[in-house]
Amino acid sequence: MPVTVRMTNLFLQLGLDATPEGVADFIKKHRLPDDVNVLDAEFWNDGQRQALKEMLCSDGEWALVVDQLNEALRAPES
Q1: DSSP 76
Q2: Contact (CB, 8 A) for 70 and 32
Q3: Is the pTM of this model over 0.85?
Q4: What does the alpha-carbon distance between residue 34 and residue 58 come to, in Å, rounded to a whole number?
Q5: CATH code for the domain defined by 7-74
């Protein structure tokens, strides 16, 4: 059975807290300036950065979720 690609699954793949609260907290604490590529963010470790790069290069469902995370990290705080 294929894995449903969601933000929580992305966080699991990255070894991060994948609870809805954990995802929201990560996004709140890690803001990304407009001039920084998501892959160049200082808060990723080498393994996370490589995983994100592979997901983006796959141009599949994972790439869409990484794009969503990228947008969330740049969105104005509410």
Answers
A1: P
A2: yes
A3: yes
A4: 23
A5: 1.10.10.1130
Please compute, for residue 26, the number of CA atoms within 13 A of its CA located in the half-sphere on the CB side: 20
64 Cβ contact list (under 8 Å, min separation 6): 5
Residues in the chain: 78
Dihedral of the alpha carbons of 51, 69, 71, 40, in degrees to the nearest 10: -30
Sequence-distant (6+) residues with CB within 8 A of 8 are: 18, 19, 20, 23
Residues 21-76: tens digit of each pLDDT? 999 999 999 999 999 999 999 999 999 999 999 999 987 899 999 999 999 999 88
Please check whether residue 16 is in contact with residue 26, taking contact to mean a CB–CB distance below 8 angstroms. Answer: yes
Q: How far is the C-alpha of 22 from the C-alpha of 16, rounded, in Å?
A: 8
N- to C-terminal Cα separation, the chain = 37
